[in-house]
Amino acid sequence: MATSAQRKPIRWHIGVLLAPAILIYTVIMLLPVFDSLRLSLYGKGPDGEAVFVGLANYTTLLTDSYWQGPFWNALWNNTLFFIIHMLVQNPIGILLAALLSLGKLPGREFYRTALFLPTMLSFVIVGFVWKLILSPAWGVSKTLLGSVGLGSWFGPWLGQPDTALVTLALISVWQFIGLPMMLIYAAMIAIPDELLEAASCDGVTGITQFFKIKLPLIWPSIGVVSILTFVGNFNAFDLIYVSQGALAGPNFSTDILGTLLYRTFFGNQLQSGDPFMGATIAGAMFLIILGGVCVYLYGVQRRLAYYQM
Amino acid sequence: MTQTIARRFQISTLAAHLVLIGFTLLALAPTLLVVMNSFKPRKEIFGAPLALPSFETITLIGYDTVLKRGDILHYFQNSLIVTVCALFFIILFGAMAAFALSEYRFPGNRLIGLFLVMGIMVPIRLGTVGILKMMVSLGLANTLFALILVYTAQGLPMAVFVMSEFMRQVSDDLKNAARVDGLSEYTILFRLVLPVVRPAIATIAVFTMVPIWNDLWFPLVLAPGESTRTMTLGAQSFIGQFITDWNAVLAALTLAIVPMLILYLMFSRQLIRGITAGAVK
Amino acid sequence: MGKLVLEGISKRFGAVEVLKTVDLDVADGEFIVIVGPSGCGKSTLLRIIAGLSDQSTGKVLIGGQDVSSLPPSKRGIAMVFQSYALYPHLTVEGNLTLGLKQARTAASLIAERVAEAVRILALEPFLKRRPGELSGGQRQRVAIGRAIVRHPEVFLFDEPLSNLDAALRNQVRAEIADLHRRLGATMVYVTHDQVEAMTLADRIIVMNGGIVQQIGTPSDLYRRPANAFVATFIGSPGMNMVPGVAAGGVLTLAGSGRLPCTAAANGAVTAGIRPNGFEVLPAGSDGLAGTLIGSEYLGAESFLRVRLTDGTVVTVHEHPDHGWLIDQPVTLRLRPGNLHLFDAESGLRIAEGPDAAPQPVAARVA
């Protein structure tokens, strides 16, 4: 065996293979995000060019009388939006997943396909379809509710400041319920059959089996679904924009961080665009989302044991 | 014939079906309502919204209006170009990077991997400001190419993540045998490994295709012009224009739904298989 | 009436019949092993006994009671699964007590039963650990413990040793045999390994293709296999099957050797001779002529492979320090009492003659 030191050939191909992805990803995704965040540290100087102001913009956002109202309003609305998703979307998603994963269920594929359909629709469609259906002018909802005796319940929910946000949140839940349903369904069918059979032999069946055996084993997936919901909700924009417009009416009651960002950056009939404050809002959103993810990773995830089955 | 134990559970299965049917109706009803009513004359839309369009009064007047006023085919074509090209680049560059990361050991492998995959959590919209400036300065504002670039960047992290997982499972023996035979690394990737990880590619394709097709934000910000308008953006402006013309609005919505619906029904099995990958029941 | 009785059990999936009419009577305290190749229906049968699968026809009776329509937890059974199926999120203690708590058993009784299982299986050091922290063998013991605490009428084992490595398998096999002796419980055990069947069972049921081939003690199955399948399945290395023709009390084997045989045999037959049923002699002696084509030395013994004149290759047991050489022509003589005759077509055992072991037992064949 020759012992002379041999120069290892340079593995060019590794670089070639990695280059396009890294290039596009860094240049188009990462750099602009950091650039935006960087822009939030600048303000408009006396000559109109950018001047470094440090965290002044953030302070303005949080405390200035002009900015803080809309900001806290948007933040609160966004939080409410998220809470409704957690309380409605995820439990129902879990329920549907549990039903779909029951032993022999004829029509399972049909149900899955049908329940997942709304997720495929664009926000444009969802926004307008529901706007139409809930529109008092058409009256479809009133008729439908009337047929179950709840006709008097109906109101122009999307047009009323105190009900608009909740209504939109529920519409969003309607649209996306397929996702937690699927992810948790996948987790449930990963539970080995023999484990459930052992449980039947122990007399643990039905609903008891769900709470004592299945639920503990799918907590990690529920965790993943929750954090994805969080990230998705705090990034939301499209549904509100399509349904209520950039002004997120009525009366800014449906204004969330995404719409606030859009309006601030691009301007609208009430104000001209402000790139610096826009970037600041983007920065704030980034920090909020990052914060949430960190809390999840370090606080929650650690406690959710992944059991090897 | 012995009395089966399954019979005992029939009541709870019935309850399960009732719940599922209930939610299914809720899921499908809005779409059905819109499609049904798009074929009805105005009077019936208001008079009998829940009824199927009757044979005598079935009308295409809404479609007529919409198809004449808007350039649907053009929008559809734009959406198609953007989605297909972005998908192509995502899969191509994603597969290349995934292969490099999963196959070779080199300093920084783990870091680069984390770097790329971290993008799944990064909301690309926050960089809109910067992206817009970049596109303008490159002269790419209002071009389909700008959209393709953005969606490629957006889809790469997930693609790299999923594909590297799948590629790790391809047998080393297969690849080494090819190397012994003198095949280049590129040939190994494209001719041997890619065909084996086809399920991963199908999963990624379905997952990334839908958000790209349905996206409103980037077409609105980067390419709102008439010539580069995508289907989703186009639908939004239609509906904005025809807000009082119910027939047209319903027709426009139906036309916006149909392509997605067809694609979904064609690929729903793949999609669902992709999401539940690994556990089949 | 036995502890476990199966009457006319059959199972079909659509048009496919996976189990054809099984009747079985297991006595109290008996260790019954159901053995057969993959797909023979043994696991299906076990699951039907457990209540995890429904039979298409027939009844299951445990302790004299018809349990055919009862769920598993009410049948008085406890099952040990191939994959152990322990609850990963519960401790060993939790695993042992879940079923009892579900049945609202008194806390004192639960404690008593758990203590008993822990003592028998030496589980004390693991009580507070989770299954993920245990080795395969330890997990299997916990699974057995979970069955013990239920004090079932019948224990069911579904290939419990298959997931263990070879060395551990022998050890746990011995532990299961010990367990049976200590508890004196009725046990039904499913496996594809005939060694496990032979060493553990009081009686064995051999199955193939959903049909019961034979039910009998290990000795019955070894000495008087009811058909060619059982003959080749039981015993290792397997019985040699040599084609031959019988006429008028004379058997012509492999085209050359002639032996006396029972007059009941007529026409094409298959002769079954175990490897230790042959004696190897130099060529030219009285017997079956053949050529030595291979030899495997195992230390305590050797196995020779001999090709007979008609091309059939047989395995022959020999002394480890035999002097035979490869390609050497040899003669095989049949030792008395080692000839089994089966019908060449149906594989069924042909009634005994002077050259076979005495008294066949009526064997159940489909």
From TrEMBL, chain B:
Location in the cell: Cell inner membrane; Cell membrane
Keyword Lipid biosynthesis in annotation: no
Classification via InterPro entries: MetI-like, MetI-like_sf
Topology within the bilayer: Multi-pass membrane protein
Gene Ontology CC: plasma membrane
Biological process (GO), any one: transmembrane transport
TM annotation in the entry: 14-33, 45-63, 75-99, 111-132, 144-167, 188-213, 246-267
Domain ABC transmembrane type-1: 76-267
UniProt-listed SUPFAM superfamilies: MetI-like
CDD domains for this protein: TM_PBP2
Keyword Transmembrane helix: yes
Entry keywords, A to Z: Cell inner membrane, Cell membrane, Membrane, Transmembrane, Transmembrane helix, Transport
Subunit structure: The complex is composed of two ATP-binding proteins (UgpC), two transmembrane proteins (UgpA and UgpE) and a solute-binding protein (UgpB).
Family statement drawn from the similarity comment of this UniProt entry: Belongs to the binding-protein-dependent transport system permease family.
Functional summary from the UniProt entry: Part of the ABC transporter complex UgpBAEC involved in sn-glycerol-3-phosphate (G3P) import. Probably responsible for the translocation of the substrate across the membrane.
Protein's name according to its UniProt entry: sn-glycerol-3-phosphate transport system permease protein UgpE
